[in-house]
Amino acid sequence: MTGADAIVRCLEKEGVEYVFGYPGVAIAPFYDSILDTDIKTVLVREEQNAAHAASGYARTSGKVGVAAVTSGPGATNLITGIATAFADSIPMVCITGQVNSHLMGSDVFQEADISGACESFVKYSYIIRNVQEIPEVLKEAFYIASTGRQGPVLIDIPIDVQKEEISRFRYPEEVKLRTYKPTVQGNKVQMDKLLKELKKAKRPILCIGGGVHLSHAEQEVREFVNRNQLPTVATMMGIGVMPTDDPYYFGMVGNNGRKYGNRVMNEADLILMVGARVADRSISQPSLITEGKVLVHIDVDPAEIGKNAGPTIPLVGDIRSIFTVLNKEAPAGDYTEWMEHLNEVRSEYLESIHHRLEQENPDYVSSFKFVRTLCRSLPDTAVYVADVGQNQLWSCAGYFMKKGKFFTSGGMGTMGYAIPAAVGAKLADPAREVVAVLGDGAFQMSMMELGTMRQYHVPVKICVFKNNVLGLVRQYQHLTYHDRFSVTDLSGSPELDKLAEAYGMKYRKLRSDQGMQEAIDAFLEKEESFLLEVDTDPDEVV
Amino acid sequence: MKRIYSVLVENRSGVLCKVAGLFWRRCFNIDSLAVGETEDHSVSSMTIVSSGDERTLEQIEKQLNKKLDVIKVRTFEESECISRELTLVKVKYNRNNRKDIMENCQIMGAKIVDLSKTQMMIEICDTPERVEIFLKTLRTISIVEIARTGTLALMKCKE
Questions:
Q1: pLDDT bracket for residue A118 (50, 70, 90)
Q2: Contacts of B68 in chain A (CB under 8 A)
Q3: Edge-to-edge order in the sheet of strand A40-43
Q4: Which residues, in sequence order, are bridge partners of residue B43?
Q5: Does any CB of chain B come closer than 8 Å to the CB of residue A105?
Q6: Strands A294-299 and A313-316
Q7: Per the CB < 8 Å rule, is B55 touching A310?
Q8: Which pTM was predicted?
Q9: Which domains does chain A have, with CATH numbers?
Q10: What percent of chain A is helix, strand and coil (3-state, nearest 5)?
């Protein structure tokens, strides 16, 4: 058995179903060994997208995503994908081929110090120099990627180590790491304090972050909210935990969130931050959530607590485990008055939405209305992948879902995430409808993946908001630089009907709000890949 | 505010780089850093002195703990530990100041470890403050070059 055989055997032991990647000489032994297994391989069209596809796969399946690429440029192309996964704590194992171990450090062809380059974007990285270490390293890598605060782990394997014979293969049953023991159970004393404060509070609010998805605690958090009748908001990464029309849910906070979501946060006297980083886009000023308020911060990563805002009650642990315990306690307080006030705020907002949805734009498609209509037409369990830019913000604002999933590159804001992530999501759960929504800028960063979709018959639905500009940057230039538009003109884009035809995809164009429902129905009608071009107004401000 | 971090790490290649990189990336100060093996060959000990506000110093500890090569982080203020710094300093001397230098060495417990007709090398091993006091007296003469280990520290012995 060679090192490459051993790696593949480890992947089988971990139940890996798909490897997304791009081969090259330095990873050739691995891709040779994988032929003898049932593990399916997906050849993406650019390495970055292997990581995004693995991310979409991981977020849908709850398993660790796997990407494997060659050394040098293959590995460096992967970096943006790794950094994207790291920023959103997505469990992933990335395998990179490396030049012959005896040549490492001598700048030979396609050599790159990938573990050095990725140091600040990975949870951990390995360079395997001894073939005997493979089973142990792979076991550790999957364990590290999927426990505690999840994230990408990089394994760099020189080609000679892949070819070397391994004397004895034994896959470890368990991992023993003296340096790594993530806290799972919450501290009892801190939890009692939390309940005590919750009882005292008059205007509490629960703010859901992406950590709730990552610890698969959606059910537990919903139960907690309903038992305690607790008003709730979410960060961008926390969208989808609460059904949009839940009476206790008040939408997304942050500088791109709903105005009333932020107002709710400001007026609260107790904030329960759950699995959220308190980063600048969701909480612009940390002092707003600490001054004169009780801040409870629950996170699996102790370093996140107190990083941006000093909490009154820090609580470290796995969210699912903590809320399972909290749900055993009787509801703490009565917030009827607070809810009544919040509902008044909400009804003002709902009225404005209603007004917006009633209007029909004859010149362009209204982005908000389109997203809302699309969501209303999607099956309950659909996966909605938003890219980055105006399309993302419209998606957050208009998203409406009961049991579906909402993915986006929240932390890193990587353009071109949606299509490859949607491919990964669809492969993870073919029964779910998967729709990618993106602008024409992000589309041209990732449109090579239409080839991947075609090759592997992945029927993903793609909506391209086409306005021939880089909308969000242009909007920024409009607001901040008084219409001095610089490098945001995107004319010269391809004709999407021809492109769709070239890739054997169904295509349709929606020019205005007229006929929106009918176009969406046609878009979703069959299990087939479909490109829907949506003409949006370049001057529309989100 | 200054704080001393005594960090036990896995004795693997690249660990120093990872720890130093953490300080760099997160804009933490390193006043000094000393590394060496411990009694256990698989473990290295790093003594890092850093300065910053309370929140930064707390973040340093948390971020260090998060590194998967870090076994244990202990922090202490200078009063809780015995700290030493070894310094070698080369000075230019002449007939007029030779005696002064030797007297200063005697007062501060420093040793002259090398000597030529015009230069001498002095070794001092003491607390960082006392090393600094000693160097201050030498700066009035003429320092040629200095090599410092940075602070090493261990918690005081238990009763």
A1: very high
A2: 123-124, 144, 177, 179-180
A3: A40-43, A18-22, A65-69, A92-98, A152-158, A124-127
A4: B10
A5: no
A6: parallel
A7: yes
A8: 0.93
A9: 3-163 (3.40.50.970), 188-341 (3.40.50.1220), 359-535 (3.40.50.970)
A10: 45, 20, 40
